Amino acid sequence: MIVDDHPMVREGLAGILERQEMSIVGVAATGRQAIEMFDQFLPDILLLDLRLPDQSGIEVMRRILADHPHAKIIFLSSSQGDASIFDAISNGASGYLVKGIDGATLGDSIRRVWAGGRCLSPEAAEKLSQHIASKKLSEREIEVLHLISKGNSNKEIARLLFVTEDTIKMHVKKILLKLPANDRTQAVVIAIQRGLLNV
Fold first, then answer.
1. Residue 36 domain-assigned?
2. Under a CB-based contact definition with an 8 Å cutoff, are residues 3 and 52 in contact?
3. What is the count of structural domains for the chain?
4. pLDDT per residue over 63-101, tens digit each?
5. Would you state the pLDDT for residue 37?
6. CB-count burial class (<10 Å; 0-12, 13-18, 19+) for 115
7. Same domain, 92 and 41
8. What is the pTM of this model?
9. Low pLDDT (below 70) residues in the chain
10. Are 64 and 143 found together in one domain?
11. Among the three residues 109, 132, 155, which one is the final residue of a domain in this structure?
12. Do 105 and 18 lie in a common domain?
């Protein structure tokens, strides 16, 4: 089963997989459709995009795995953020492939997962190892970064989080060191690229 919000991607994938002698039991464009259709068709493999119009692919996967713990889900996404890849794998995905993969490799990856294995594209494996080795932002630091991305000053963030402005300055300093970034704007850009922030 294929889940992607772009019709061209859905049709292209269906054609590629049929040439790989796989049958498509369903295609969905939204997370809600994916969950309903999964219950209806119980596919051997679910190819899932990370970004859907109504909810994230991670949320869709969590919902499906709650009802079908043995579901085999492979993310096929253009997103190469290390945090996104880590979230997908740590929440139960059987694989993470980057769009642009050739048909034969996609077919081999699906067969490997169907046989009980896992698959990671080389790019995803590299990003995953970078994520594991990187200094992690705390939940509070991500919260501060999210408020920075909304255009709030340190003073405004302090008021929103009921702490002193000095506390926020300390959080910002740690964020810049951990990412590493030269300023607040670059920190937000890096966080979005890595999948730490969804703006």
1. yes
2. yes
3. 2
4. 999 999 999 999 998 877 788 888 899 899 999 998 888
5. 96
6. exposed
7. yes
8. 0.75
9. 133, 199
10. no
11. 132
12. yes
Chain position carrying tokens 């080389």: 122
Other Cβ atoms closer than 10 A to 189: 15
SS3 content of the chain, % helix, strand, coil (to 5): 55, 10, 35
Angstrom distances, CA of residue 6 to CA of 48, 78, 101: 12, 12, 17
Q: Mark whether 99 and 28 lie in a shared domain.
A: yes
* Strand 46-48, strand 73-77: pairing: parallel
Q: Which single residue is written with the structure tokens 């991607």?
A: 9
pLDDT for the residue 117: 94
**What range does the domain containing 153 cover?**
139-194
Instruction: Report how far apart, in Å, the C-alpha atoms of 15 and of each of 24, 31, 124, 164 are.
Output: 9, 22, 24, 57
Amino acid at 2: I
For the four alpha carbons of 171, 149, 136 and 71, in that order, the dihedral sign comes to positive
